[in-house]
Structure formats: C-alpha cells, structure tokens
C-alpha cells in the first residue's frame, strides 16, 4: 500500500495516510512517457512559420551583371544567402494531432501519482478547500517548502474547492487544478503534488457501507 504524508492547511504534519488500492501499481515508464509526450505536443499551437524566397517582398532587379565580377552568379535579393532574404528550410504551419485512448490516459495518470509518491513528492492536505485568502496559501507553501524542500507546487483540488482557485493566481510557484481535470502531464511536471483530503472520503464511505452490508448478511445467515 502506498502511504503519503498528511499536513494541515497551516503546513503542520498530521500523520500518514494510505492511498486507495488503485494507486498501488507497478509504474510503466514507457506508457507514461508516451502520454506525457502527447499532452506536451497538444500544448503547441503549431502556427510557427517563416517566409520562403517566393513570399519575400523585395526588388526583382538583378543584383549585378552575370559575368566579370569574380563573384557568384545571383539573380535576386530574395535568396536565402542575403540578409532579409527568404528562409530555405524553415518551419511551416503544420498542426499534428496525436491521440491516445482514455484507458491509457487513466493508467498513465495513476502511474504519475505513484511515481511522485515514490519520490516523496506527493502529500495530502486537510482543509485545503476551506482556504479563504491568499495569505493562507502563502503560509501553506512556505511551510511545505521548509518541510519538504520543494519550491514549486501543484494543488489538486476537490469539487468543493472551486472558490479556492482564485487565491493561487498571484503565485508563480503554485498552481491549482481540479482532480477530475488533472492529467499525467500536469502531475509529472507539476513539482510537489498536493492533494486535497476531500478527494477520497466518498471512496472510504462506500467501502464502509459494503462492510456494513456484508456484516448484516452474515448476521442474517447466522439466524
């Protein structure tokens, strides 16, 4: 079972927590690298472009006479050899779209969390969705920096933390993203990953209900 350190919203240690079983997987670095590459490629707009000699607006007058100068033969200032001329083999606006399946995305997402946990770059914070001012965010980041040595943070918020996102806008070293929107690229390159403790209670409650149902079935069979 994967265990991670838990902190309060003030940055004080509050023990350890065990992540759900779905996180306890053997890391497939090849799949993780593939998915991260796809997300990284999608972040590029793909509109980079340079002008060829056919697109340059310059004089069409011959540079100098064909023979007798001792220099190479040139017919246009648009050639790539001249300053201000066209670019011979520059980038063109071609947009590539790479696709991966939803199953691969989800597996890579879990691999990224597991990799961060194995490196000690995954922590849990209680009361993260109750932060109500920017100063609290600053205090939390400073406390986590002193405790872990990390300098950049990505906070994974639950659905109840929608009002907390605005308090991270003025921080260059910290960013916030919702649990349902976080992908392998965000996690892998996000520095220290800080999970909101309210992400997991529903799963814990569901397990407790299953245990209660099984207990009732056992009692009924015994009668």
UniProtKB/TrEMBL annotation:
Family: Belongs to the universal ribosomal protein uL4 family.
Gene Ontology biological-process annotations: translation
Statement: the UniProt record of this protein carries the keyword Ribosomal protein: yes
GO molecular function: structural constituent of ribosome
CC per GO annotation: ribonucleoprotein complex; ribosome
Protein's name according to its UniProt entry: Large ribosomal subunit protein uL4
Keyword Ribonucleoprotein carried by entry: yes
Domain of life: Bacteria
Provenance organism: Candidatus Woesebacteria bacterium RIFOXYD1_FULL_43_18
Keywords, sorted A to Z: Ribonucleoprotein, Ribosomal protein
Gene3D superfamilies linked to this entry: 3.40.1370.10
Pfam families, per database record: Ribosomal_L4
InterPro entries hit by this protein: Ribosomal_uL4, Ribosomal_uL4-like, Ribosomal_uL4_dom_sf
